[in-house]
Amino acid sequence: MASLHTAARRFQTLIYKENGQPFNGTIMPVDEGKIPSYDFASPRLMLRTTVEGVVKARDIILDNLNRRFIVANNGYSPYGQQFTWRLFQVLADLSWKRQASTTDTLTGLKKGQPPQDLGLIPCTVEMTGREYPEPATNLSEETRRIVTAANLQLGDQVDDAIVRRLDTALGVTYAEIR
After folding, report:
1. What pTM, to 2 d.p., does this model score?
2. What pLDDT does 16 receive?
3. Quick one: CA dihedral 21, 48, 166, 161, positive or negative?
4. How far apart are CA 75 and CA 50, in angstroms?
5. Are 27 and 59 within one domain?
6. Tens digit of pLDDT for each residue in 84-94?
7. 42 pLDDT exceeds 70?
8. Is 6 helix (H, G, I), strand (E, B) or coil?
9. Which range is least confidently modeled, 117-121, 122-126, 127-131, 160-164?
């Protein structure tokens, strides 16, 4: 017998996690009035699944066009026995480095080391504009906002820029780099 719950299965496609694990789901545009609006220029998409636990926040998934997305929480699903996730399309793989330091055993002081390369991180990059850090100098800095699945820290180096602000929301990391 047909029901609204089983009717949604017709629209599901096979989606893969970045590790190759397949699952069924639907990627669809977001109804702008239903979730909070953020200042991101890239299209807002949502993933809908009927099985709990197949994806979680910070997962990277691939659709049938081989586009990569970062999965973020979306909150309550108004669709009954379905689970919804917010998607951010991966627009770049940026290099990630962290400043390392060691403690000198003789003096007990910290000494600097070259930055430790932590690899490439998939992220969404968006320009946020220019900031004027000090009115006396009137020097402008370009700032970019990134959304990533990596656990960044303040002071990390991402693509030759330094992480200046950091926030975790919807289960993913939002960082401002300059």
Report:
1. 0.81
2. 94
3. positive
4. 15
5. yes
6. 899 999 999 99
7. no
8. helix
9. 127-131
Do 8 and 50 form a contact (C-beta atoms < 8 A)? yes
Q: Note down the domain range covering 52.
A: 4-89
Residues 61 and 137 in one domain: no
Is residue 77 scored above 60 in pLDDT? yes
Cβ(158)–Cβ(152) below 8 Å: yes
Average pLDDT, the chain: 83
32 and 19 together in one domain = yes
Give the pLDDT confidence score for residue 95 in this predicted structure.
96
Give pLDDT, residue 168. 93
DSSP class per residue in 86-139? EEEE--EEEEEEE--EEE-TTT--EEE-PPEEEEEEEEEEEEEEEE-S-TTT--
Do residues 155 and 148 make contact, with C-beta atoms less than 8 angstroms apart?
Answer: no
Same domain, residue pair 12 and 78: yes
Residue 65 φ/ψ region, left for φ over 0, alpha for ψ in the -120 to 50 degree band, beta for the rest: alpha
Q: In terms of domains, do 78 and 96 share one?
A: no
CB of 111 closer than 8 Å to CB of 102: yes
**Domain of residue 162, CATH code:** 2.40.10.370
